[in-house]
Design a protein that fits this description.
Strand order of the largest sheet: 2-1-3-4-5
Protein name: MurR/RpiR family transcriptional regulator
Structural class: alpha/beta
Keywords: DNA-binding, Transcription, Transcription regulation
Organism: Clostridium frigoris
Shape: elongated
Number of domains: 2
Radius of gyration: 25 Å
Pfam families: HTH_6, SIS
CATH architecture of the largest domain: 3-Layer(aba) Sandwich
InterPro entries: HTH_RpiR (IPR000281), RpiR-like (IPR047640), RpiR-like_SIS (IPR035472), SIS_dom (IPR001347)
Largest sheet: 5 strands, parallel
CATH superfamily of the largest domain: Glucose-6-phosphate isomerase like protein, domain 1
Length: 282
Amino acid sequence: MNDTGGIERLRNIYSELKGAEKRVGEYILKNPEDIIHSSITELAENCKCGDATVSRLSKKLGFKGYQDLKIRIASEIVKPIVNIHEEIKENDDSLVLMQKIFNSTISSLNETLRINDSKELDKAIGYIHNSKRIAFFGMGGSAAIALDAYHKFMRTGKYCIFHDDSHFQAMVSSMYDENDCIIAISNTGSNKELVENLKIGKEKGVKIISVTSNYKSPISKVSDVVLVSYGKENLSRSEAMESRISALSLIDCMFVGTCLKDKDNYYKVLGEIRDAIAIKRY
């Protein structure tokens, strides 16, 4: 236990804490930066408990006292040593569960930002802007992301369609040409039918933009632009859970970039859409 950080130790026993100790534990987990600047009395007041409760919790965590706990947490804040991909445990409290999942997702978003070249994004935006028609392809769980992208890009005024059926995808790919583009979503990038459908479009000169978690996957070989949605897998959740959020963020980047290319038209179409759906609401 001596090698583990104060925050990790607290997470490990948080579900076992009761009453005032749990209030102190919750406050520390939610406000670790504040702890390094707070005295034991200030922390106790914030948690509506006595100094003895804070001291007792510090010792329960394996520290000599509150000051020792503060020093350890300060080192974690300044130079993070907490594993942001911590495994979720069966007895994790809901607060700890939220923190582990959110921290891991934030890390995946940061990694997605780091590994993607802005030039590739610019290229994708250029292809979309210059296209007459845009098709959104996705299968299985990726279909929901493709549908979300279709829902967004309708607001650009471009002719957009969405298909998650292999036969429809093949038909669309065969009818599109060099003036059109297909945005394909595939977490693994290895769906054989999807890749085959993209090849049909590729042979017709269609621009292919793929969003995948694996830049070395088969879909990358038939794509003009590859954007990588990073996600880390562990025992509790698949990488698709995190890469889904990363993929949605990359789609948002393409969407906003496309809108900025033709702002006047975007605002015009957006106004028309809002007027059309206004009658659907009370």
